[in-house]
Amino acid sequence: MINTDVLIIGAGAAGLMCAIEAGKRGRKVIVLDHANKAGKKILMSGGGRCNFTNYTVESSNYLSNNPHFCKSALSRYSQWDFLALVSRYRIPYHEREHGRLFCNDSASDILTMLLTECENAGVTIHLNTTIHHIEKHEQQFKLHTNQGYFTAQSLVVATGGLSIPKMGATPLGYKIAEQFGIKVLPTRAGLVPLTLQPEDKEKFSPLSGIAVPCTVSANGQAFNENILFTHRGLSGPSVLQISSYWHAGETISINLLPHITLSDELKTKRQQKLNSTLKTILNTYLPKHLLSCLVPENLLNTALQDCSDRQIQQVAEQLHNWIIKPNGTEGYRTAEITLGGVDCNELSSKTMASNKVSGLYFIGEVVDVSGWLGGYNFQWAWSSGWCAGQIV
User: Fold this and answer.
1) Homologous superfamily of 2-188+340-389 in CATH?
2) What percent of the chain has pLDDT over 90?
3) Model pLDDT, residue 272
4) Sheet arrangement for strand 233-235
5) Is the CB of residue 52 less than 8 Å from the CB of residue 375?
């Protein structure tokens, strides 16, 4: 039997950050993970470049049943604090659109930094460790694993969500919460491509590979980025973002020309007496194959001079407010995050500790805090892990 001060389940972003902070306080820390390597999702994130945080981080960038819960952690350990750590290790990084920060070289730079910090703080990491059973006796947690028994005063659950099961995602964290009577909110895939109804899939799948800048809206939320047509449906940053707000059975609205007022543009060109068909003019704005899917061919082939105001308005409405009803999502297989999870109302927003079970903590994606695309989920991992690390 191995006895320690702190046991952390999960060697991902949140778990490693918590381990570093607890170790720096002189606590004896052991991290357990069933994978054969720590930080696997860190390595694959951002196309191997790890979008590790964002220049602008607000509570409004997160979804939660308790929207105020994340504020404390994000303010106590901010993006600037993590950037200071990155700079200390002289990791080169660059900014992309919307303040997203990526490694210049490789995501392994971030993981190496975290593992070095763990080593410096005296943290021990046990990989290939499967947890069979957890008990609590008075002030001690006892974990029965395939590597023997571990006991500790503090148990931190940093198991992540259900997204990307091929990377080893399991519902273990939710099961631990339920075992100790802690409420878990329903989970679903977030930041995930949308699939289309059979008739729409047949209609739009030939467009696979085409990307168009647009604004996608649902449930009062809108994102202005690219949409990407796929063989199965719709993807791209704007669709991934809106997928976290969309619910089954609802429609989404897509404005394919968010930066112009098409009806005004067409009427102006009509006044200029341009000798062109509607198709020729619209092809300067959008791919011709997409136009053929959305606007009747007979209308596209009409000379602009012959188009009535009503016809121009009809085309403008279709391209500015294309309403489509997705069939569903691609699910956890390709989702970047899991929405829902351990109810924030069961936890302290300052320490991530359970309000019911002393010594039990939940951090990172297992908690009902889900960020937008753009480094927000990593920042939540760093912030929540840091907060728990100050107290465990």
Assistant:
1) FAD/NAD(P)-binding domain (3.50.50.60)
2) 96
3) 86
4) 322-324, 252-255, 211-218, 221-229, 233-235, 194-196, 326-329
5) yes
